[in-house]
Amino acid sequence: MKWVTWDQAAISAVVSFMVAQVATRFPVSRARTFIQATSTELGLISFLYMLWRLAMRLPLDKPTGAIERARQIDRFQQFLHIPSELSLQHFVLRFDWLARSTNFYYAVFHVPAMVAFLVWLFVRNRNAYPHWRSALAMLTAACLVIRYIRVAPPRFLPDLGYVDLATRFGLSVYGPVGTGVSDQFAAMPSIHVGWAAIVSLGIISASTSKWRWVFALHLVFTVLAVSATGNHWWLDGVAAIALLALALRIDTLIRFKLSKTR
Questions:
Q1: Per-position DSSP letters for the chain, written without gaps between them
Q2: Within 10 A of 228 (CB to CB), how many other CB atoms are there?
Q3: What is the rounded end-to-end Cα distance, in angstroms, of the chain?
Q4: 173: Cα within 13 Å, side-chain hemisphere
Q5: Cβ proximity of 240 and 139 under 8 Å
Q6: Pick from 12, 22, 26, 37: most CB atoms within 10 A?
Q7: How would you write the pLDDT of the chain (262 residues) with one tens digit per residue?
């Protein structure tokens, strides 16, 4: 899977901001307002994506301490009597179609679901969009900082019985260590789960449809997929959701204080 590079994102950001600036020269209209708002948001998202890709280029994909921290998480989860990810993986591997579907969900749905959510929210519920976009930025930034504490995913512990579903069934988003778009020793927290929580909870919060609760399944399926594929521990997802809750709270407090100063 080919991802947009940091320099492509930089070009997108510059062009988008230029379009937004040019739009201000035209007479006020609904079309101008839409073009200006859309270009500004696209520029902002492109800029944040550029920073994310640049951060991923830092030479951090090293195993120092990652394996031992993974074992510590495994022992801590056992202490808490949390069901092992291994039992879920073994269940999935009993059915070839289920293993392939789980691996496909992990590899494919992560980014498109977020893009679709942001577009839908921007078009259908513009007032709620800044809240969830800011939470996305804060959550992702927190994950980038925390990745300096190296933590290996379960698939790096074959001695415990874990396997890498992507190696067995294809659709790997990682490749050899040190390559690929993602950091393989940054399992804690899980950006997959954090982004899925934004999509599911954002739709439930912003939509008025009686069917909005169906989208909670995206978060459920993602949590199961990241664990069954051997890419994350349960606590990786818990940490991501906790960070999202904190980000949403911070954004709410900031907006409340800003409203008081007006």
A1: -----HHHHHHHHHHHHHHHHHHTTSPP-HHHHHHHHHHHHHHHHHHHHHHHHHHHTSS----TTHHHHHHHHHHHHHHTTPPPHHHHHHHHHTSHHHHHHHHHHHHHSHHHHHHHHHHHHHHH-TTTHHHHHHHHHHHHHHHHHHTTS-B--GGG-GGGT---HHHHHS--SS-STT-SSS-TTB-SS-HHHHHHHHHHHHHHHH---TTGGGGHHHHHHHHHHHHHTTS--HHHHHHHHHHHHHHHHHHHHHHHHHHHH-
A2: 26
A3: 47
A4: 18
A5: yes
A6: 12
A7: 566 787 888 898 899 889 988 888 888 888 888 888 889 888 888 888 888 777 766 665 566 788 999 999 999 999 998 888 999 999 999 999 999 999 999 988 888 899 899 999 998 898 899 999 999 999 988 988 888 888 899 999 999 999 888 888 766 666 544 444 566 778 889 999 999 999 999 999 999 899 999 999 999 999 999 999 999 999 999 999 999 999 999 999 988 888 777 6
Task: Answer whether 74's CB lies under 8 Å from 157's CB.
Answer: yes
pTM: 0.86
CB 139, CB 243: distance < 8 Å: yes
